[in-house]
């Protein structure tokens, strides 16, 4: 059973948002925009004892009830049977509500297909009111059986609804999702084990073998419960008590009799005829203390305590520990209880492999990159991806992963459809800013690419689109975290724009704008479509290659026309070799190096070029597309008072498009 969709109303910074979820869902955004709020909302939904504070209500207004609705799908056979009364079209919708009538705070509401008119009967305060509503509906022409008693009403209503599906619609079940919230919530917990790994958690507390700790609970469930039922240990306990009783017999301690005589003599000085009897009180015997577990890590044959481990190892251990606790609790609840007295029988745990029949898990992590070395971040990201694609199903069961991150290592272009961009905006008429979530689908990008390149739809499927995005890996992931993206062909282009930007007082990093190379112009389309579909402003720049060899002209023209069409250039204005600075894109007539020669002057450019080759000890071929050489050339020529007019105009146009979305006077500057 998995989460298909989450709808959140009035929880913390979220006023009203719907979030679609896949096997892996990634939340990205600046600090304080509400990424973790989604994970906390899930915790509020699954944690039966959760009680919201004033701060948990949107704008701290407790008159706006919190509603957290989850659409579940992907049911196992057992889950489908357990929830069959609430599953429609292979989906189950459950809402938890906080606020309003405090006596019902935290109730679970299931969605059912029923007659809306019957809600007045189901929600009646007492039998008299229910009967009046029942009679009223009967009088309106609804064929219901004669009223007998209130206990029979639900059966009558359900029978009518089953026989009149066309007259029914989806309605809430009046807070009767499997009865009390502890019952309905318990059924959800059994089917969906929710684990939240917060950004700050003390692993040493979890690993300390105490009653309330995670490892202590695991030891009680798996080991110590089995020890309590072990016949040899029980026999040893009896033998210890027998021997101790024999050793402490009064016959072995005459001092007991002597003390009894002394006390009797002393007492009779006050009351003649009254004596003292002194004997051992019958006790419960000796309870042997159970052994306590000590957790250590081992690496390279060296052992060390949890508290001395690196934070990254500790964080991974927390996930493993909490997951196994849920696994064991679930299996214990399924069959290790004695039906007569409710005590652990011990047989279920002792004989049962607790790794069998693994339950599904919803794993929510705040900032999984915390305390991880960059290479470990990438590795951890791959583990999470594999977890959510059943790569470790034999160990962890069926896992759905949701996490919020600030690290590009945890998201790449091919996973854009699993990425949710989170921002906080000022809602019109609202007393506080609200979090909003942006997402895009593979279908949207596939369709856009099909249209731009006139590709037959059967050749541009979602699978093919995702496969073509894999060539980028995490190289372009920085764009997901930016307020805007400038796409260029190669590393030398990036070096040129970064250097010239600084010379004219524009620092892209300060503006949270990423300049990203895609290696060649034929790769511009896919990242452009991805970022655009997520409403991240994008400004692409490419070489039109007007000076290319005759044999390459057809390929260059096709690429130039496709990119213009992708950018929305009208058919009549599409050029074979476009050039100039435009509102939404820019093109060099030939290539960027030729444009720099034109701007700086051929002689001056070549002189600076030769000096850079000597400085870095490079051949002409090695220096041709070297970003260090490009930076050195531009720096030297700007120091001489020269400027690159077209590139400066491109930067201004790109900044304006990203930050304002409107044209400037530099919007259409012809190349010189």
Automatic annotation (TrEMBL):
<feature type="domain" description="Endonuclease GajA/Old nuclease/RecF-like AAA">
    <location>
        <begin position="1"/>
        <end position="411"/>
    </location>
</feature>
<feature type="domain" description="OLD protein-like TOPRIM">
    <location>
        <begin position="480"/>
        <end position="545"/>
    </location>
</feature>
<dbReference type="Pfam" id="PF13175">
    <property type="entry name" value="AAA_15"/>
</dbReference>
<dbReference type="InterPro" id="IPR041685">
    <property type="entry name" value="AAA_GajA/Old/RecF-like"/>
</dbReference>
<protein>
    <submittedName>
        <fullName>Uncharacterized protein</fullName>
    </submittedName>
</protein>
<dbReference type="InterPro" id="IPR027417">
    <property type="entry name" value="P-loop_NTPase"/>
</dbReference>
<feature type="region of interest" description="Disordered">
    <location>
        <begin position="331"/>
        <end position="350"/>
    </location>
</feature>
<dbReference type="InterPro" id="IPR051396">
    <property type="entry name" value="Bact_Antivir_Def_Nuclease"/>
</dbReference>
<dbReference type="Pfam" id="PF20469">
    <property type="entry name" value="OLD-like_TOPRIM"/>
</dbReference>
<dbReference type="InterPro" id="IPR034139">
    <property type="entry name" value="TOPRIM_OLD"/>
</dbReference>
């Amino acid at each position: 059973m998995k989460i298909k969709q989450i709808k959140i109303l009035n929880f913390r910074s979220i006023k009203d948002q719907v979030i679609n979820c896949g096997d892996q869902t990634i939340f990205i955004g600046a600090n304080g925009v509400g990424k973790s709020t989604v994970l906390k909302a899930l915790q509020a939904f699954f944690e039966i004892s959760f009680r919201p504070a004033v701060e948990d209500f949107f704008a701290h207004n407790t008159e706006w009830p919190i509603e957290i609705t989850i659409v579940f799908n992907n049911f196992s056979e057992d889950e489908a049977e357990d929830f069959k009364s609430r599953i429609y079209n292979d989906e189950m919708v459950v809402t938890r509500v906080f606020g309003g009538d405090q006596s019902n705070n935290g109730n679970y509401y299931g969605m059912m297909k029923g007659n809306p008119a019957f809600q007045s009967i189901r929600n009646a305060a007492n039998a008299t009111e229910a009967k009046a509503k029942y009679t009223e509906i009967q009088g309106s022409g609804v064929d219901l059986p004669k009223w007998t008693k209130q206990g029979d009403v639900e059966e009558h209503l359900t029978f009518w609804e089953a026989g009149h599906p066309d007259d029914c619609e989806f309605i809430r079940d009046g807070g009767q999702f499997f009865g009390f919230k502890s019952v309905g919530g318990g059924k959800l917990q059994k089917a969906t084990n929710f684990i939240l790994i917060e950004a700050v958690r003390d692993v040493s507390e979890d690993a300390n073998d105490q009653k309330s700790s995670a490892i202590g609970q695991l030891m009680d469930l798996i080991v110590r419960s089995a020890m309590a039922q072990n016949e040899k240990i029980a026999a040893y306990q009896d033998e210890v008590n027998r021997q101790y009783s024999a050793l402490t017999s009064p016959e072995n301690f005459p001092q007991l009799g002597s003390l009894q005589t002394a006390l009797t003599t002393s007492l009779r000085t006050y009351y003649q005829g009254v004596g003292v009897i002194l004997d051992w009180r019958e006790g419960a015997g000796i309870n042997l203390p159970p052994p306590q577990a000590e957790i250590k890590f081992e690496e390279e044959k060296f052992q060390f305590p949890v508290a001395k481990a690196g934070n990254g190892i500790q964080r991974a251990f927390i996930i493993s520990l909490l997951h196994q606790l849920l696994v064991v609790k679930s299996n214990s609840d399924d069959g290790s209880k004695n039906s007569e007295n409710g005590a652990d029988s011990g047989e279920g745990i002792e004989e049962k492999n607790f790794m069998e029949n693994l339950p599904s898990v919803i794993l929510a992590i705040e900032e999984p990159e915390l305390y991880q070395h960059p290479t470990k971040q990438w590795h951890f990201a791959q583990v999470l991806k594999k977890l959510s694609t059943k790569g470790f199903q034999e160990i962890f069961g069926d896992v759905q992963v949701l996490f919020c991150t600030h690290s590009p290592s945890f998201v790449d272009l091919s996973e854009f459809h699993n990425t949710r961009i989170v921002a906080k905006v000022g809602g019109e008429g609202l007393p506080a800013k609200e979090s909003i979530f942006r997402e895009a689908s593979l279908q949207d990008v596939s369709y856009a690419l099909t249209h731009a390149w006139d590709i037959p739809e059967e050749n541009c499927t979602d699978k093919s689109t995702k496969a073509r995005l894999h060539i980028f890996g995490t190289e372009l992931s920085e764009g997901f975290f930016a307020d805007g993206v400038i796409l260029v062909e190669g590393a030398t282009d990036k070096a040129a724009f970064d250097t010239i930007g600084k010379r004219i007082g524009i620092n892209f990093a300060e503006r949270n704008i990423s300049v990203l190379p895609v290696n060649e112009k034929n790769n511009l389309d896919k990242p452009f479509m991805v970022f655009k579909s997520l409403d991240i402003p994008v400004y692409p720049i490419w070489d039109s290659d007007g000076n290319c060899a005759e044999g390459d002209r057809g390929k260059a023209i096709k690429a130039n026309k496709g990119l213009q069409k992708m950018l929305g250039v009208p058919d009549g204005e599409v050029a074979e070799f476009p050039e100039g600075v435009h509102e939404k894109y820019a093109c060099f007539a030939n290539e960027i190096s030729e444009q720099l020669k034109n701007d700086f002057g051929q002689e001056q450019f070549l002189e600076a070029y030769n000096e850079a080759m000597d400085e870095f000890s490079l051949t002409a071929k090695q220096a041709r597309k070297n970003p260090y050489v490009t930076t050195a050339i531009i720096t030297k020529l700007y120091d001489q008072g020269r400027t690159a007019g077209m590139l400066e105009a491109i930067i201004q146009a790109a900044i304006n498009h990203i930050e304002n979305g409107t044209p400037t006077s530099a919007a259409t500057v012809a190349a010189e």
